[in-house]
Amino acid sequence: MSQVSSYLRYLPPVLWRDEPPPPAFSLGAALCVFEKILTGIDDGVVVSHGGHAHDAIQTVIARAFRLFDPWTTPPQFLDWLASWVGLTFPDLWDEYQRRKVVAEAVRIYRQRGLKAGLNQFLDVYTVADHRPRIAIDDCCKVLFTRPQPNRFAPIYALLSQNEVTLDPVKGVPTKVTGMIAPICLGRGPDGSLFVGDEGTPEPSTPTVPAGVWQLPPPENFFRFPGAPPAPARVGPPVWPLAFPVAVATDGASPWNLYVLDYPPAQGLGGGGSQALYQLGSPSFPAAAPLATVAKLGLVWPVDMVFDAPNNALLILDRGADPYSASPPQPKVIVVTGLPAGPVTVTPHAINGVLEPLALVILSGGNLVVTDARDQTFVGPADLMLVDRANAWAVSSLLGAVAAGQNPLVAPTALARLDDAHFYVVDVGLKALRATAANPYVRLIANPATVYRIDLGAAPPSVVRAAEFGQLVFPTGMVLGGDTLYIADQGDYALDETFSPALYRVWRARVNEFGVLVHFADTRTLAQRRRILEDVREIIDQERPAHTYWTMLGP
């Protein structure tokens, strides 16, 4: 060995002053061994063991802090680090997923027992290329968001729980006051919101009838102290609604509210009044039928808007039952003669639209229709321009968007900023309506959220405008000022512990919520089962202690 250890300077000279020069053995040469191990010597000699090289102990100590960072710790330390925050890893997780969950765990634990914390835990716990769609239905029926440029806006609840009367002995609900499952949303000239509500399905206990509800202008909720005013049911005391699929208001003075009631036979058993109604402001005491469904020629209506310049209602109709083998025959039905009647009905086919879901009117009178396209094909949704002045010709507005840049799947509601900018709320499921044996496995299963569309860009752009995690099955949306209001229909479960089976509607109960898990069909059966086990375990651990929950999944 030709080197002399620098450690000699820490020893008395009497110990090394008379040492022989290298390569003879000496104290300086012996100390080189310790210096190599403890602080390292650049001598070209590698300290190795088991096929890998060892750094100096001083170097190891200097970077020990990296062991406690989940993003920099060696893979073999991840399980040890996860044990610090009470985590164990499923076998199917990759390294990135393990690092992300450990990094997020402490922050999420601070929100334990809250929906936000549960959502975040599920989000990091199930991150993957084809993650499931997990939606927590905690009874938020009407929500709002204020989109901002270059950020995902949070979505908040505007209306959630109902007034529930419990049986004093059994503790089960006997009466529920309020809306249950909103299916459409409209805005009046005074800023108030009108919500068409499906109520509870039959048989279920308690039973809440379908109806239309009015919420005072939500802007006032934030201006005045105290509890916000409760929604009020509008219309006559006895009004045999079954499925108020669409609402719209005109600009008359006093103005009118129009309600289209059309219960589809699939799942609801038909029934109801099946008519178009007119109600007069301000108290809406009576509902005058303007036309029957038969006269309107409706097959499967999905949306309705009021065309003020022409004093007409435009009803968007799919033209075929989606649960049958019949192909869609979309059309727009123009209803004139309002408000006094008699009404005239004129249908217009919109050829080229495959799966219409929502409708808005542009400033020049043309229409924009959201189209979920072919429900048997993995492809994006589109916006379709309907040119009323050119024989109702249809053309694509998003056809020029590059592949992979259009995230729309099933845009169920559309709000217009101007003729070039729109907001859509997208359910994220395809097929939109489950027809297979397993309703929780779809071609596409993405979270529901809000997107902003810019048709003025070249090519047009579709960008996400809101956070994930708050929406279950949004079906309506209106724009008021800078605020988007969203109606969320939610879901319910068939409880077969009763004979005969009853629908369990957690939105009509207290301290209950539902968890809906949808998978894209790219997941294997084994993966689905393992993920569902993880989700159940997470919810049991992280849910509020006073709550019950129901899980719907494959």
How would you portray this structure in words?
- It is a single chain.
- Helices cover 14% and strands 32% of the residues.
- The N and C termini lie far apart (70 Å).
- Among the domains are: 6-62, no CATH class; 75-131 and 515-552, no CATH class.
- Strands 3, 27, 35 and 36 form a 4-stranded mixed beta sheet that branches. A 4-stranded antiparallel beta sheet has the order 5-4-32-31, with no helix packed on it. A 4-stranded antiparallel beta sheet has the order 8-9-10-11, with no helix packed on it.
- Mean pLDDT is 87; it is low at 266-270.
- It is α+β, with helices and mostly antiparallel strands and 554 residues long.
- It has 8 helices and 36 strands.
Largest β sheet strand count, sense and barrel closure: 4 strands, mixed
Parts with pLDDT < 50 across at least 5 consecutive residues: 266-270
Average residue pLDDT: 87
Shape: elongated
Radius of gyration from the alpha-carbon trace, in angstroms: 32 Å
Distinctive features:
554 residues; alpha+beta; 4-stranded antiparallel sheet
List strands and helices in order, with pairings:
Elements: H1 27-38, E1 48-49, E2 52-53, H2 57-62, H3 78-84, H4 95-109, H5 115-125, E3 133-137, E4 142-145, E5 155-159, E6 163-166, E7 173-177, E8 182-187, E9 193-197, E10 211-215, E11 232-234, E12 244-249, E13 256-261, H6 265-268, E14 275-280, E15 288-292, H7 293-296, E16 301-307, E17 312-317, E18 331-336, E19 344-349, E20 356-361, E21 367-371, E22 382-387, E23 393-396, E24 411-418, E25 421-426, E26 429-430, E27 441-442, E28 444-445, E29 449-454, E30 461-464, E31 474-480, E32 483-488, E33 493-495, E34 502-504, E35 512-520, H8 525-542, E36 548-552
Parallel strand pairs: 27-35, 35-36
Antiparallel strand pairs: 1-2, 3-35, 4-5, 4-32, 6-7, 8-9, 9-10, 10-11, 12-13, 13-14, 14-15, 16-17, 17-18, 18-19, 20-21, 21-22, 22-23, 24-25, 25-29, 26-28, 29-30, 31-32, 33-34
Helix pairs in contact: 4-5, 5-8
